[in-house]
Amino acid sequence: MKTIKNKTFDEERSLYSLSNATVLNCTFAGERDGESALKEARSVVVKDCSFSLRYPLWHVEDFTLKASRLDDFTRAPIWYSKNGTIIDSEILGVKCLRECDNIAVIGSKINSDEFGWRCRDIYIKNSEIASSYLFFECKNLEIDNLKMEGKYSFQYTENVKITNSDFNTKDAFWHCNNVIVENTVLKGEYIGWYSKNLTLKNCKIIGTQPFCYAENLTLINCTMEQTDLAFEYSSVMAEVKGEILSVKNPKSGKIIADKIGEIILEDSIYENNCEIITGKRPVNV
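Request: output the structure for the sequence above.
Response:
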């Protein structure tokens, strides 16, 4: 494996189709403003490098990006790439990770609108991500200890497991399918609408109108804060510690909570057959 060290590159496709190499302490920036620095690279380690040019890692396979910084000029930095690890790095370019497969992000800090679209087999651990639109139409995600700031997250995702995380979002998990969330704080609005097979265990849910039009929704040992008009037209099995501000027209299943401020059973366009139990006293819908 050859080593390219302590160099500056600014031309178009400066290291195009590089293979079996380590790129160490290099800078990708300059007057020529060249794009696609490492396009079509194979089996490369990129370490302690800085990037300030567009599209640096497209169609790359078997790569490691370590202890590197991609600034906000690295637009769409990683697309169509496979079998990669991003570790201890900072990424600021918009639209990072698009149509990628088998990518791990570990110990990294990312601020990238439209992060992780249409990707498969993504692993995130001990990282921070800020993104307006996070993980759109992704499949097979495993996430542990992620701090996330965003607006619209995990829409149309499938086969997702999230643990030990903290999400500050707007709406999340719309139209998702087969998602498990454990030991996580979810702060947002309209969480889990139109979801299928969404399970939350030991989670804190904060925000208005969660879990409407959901199918096969499960909450186990969760708490809910500032959650009004919850569960409208949903099939749900929920065990909630503490109080839910209000529940509106749940469709079917069972809701158990220590307290529900208001149970709204009116103007439903569907037949409602959900059992609601508060303080060990059932309310039949």
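The CA atoms of residues 251 and 270 lie 7 Å apart.
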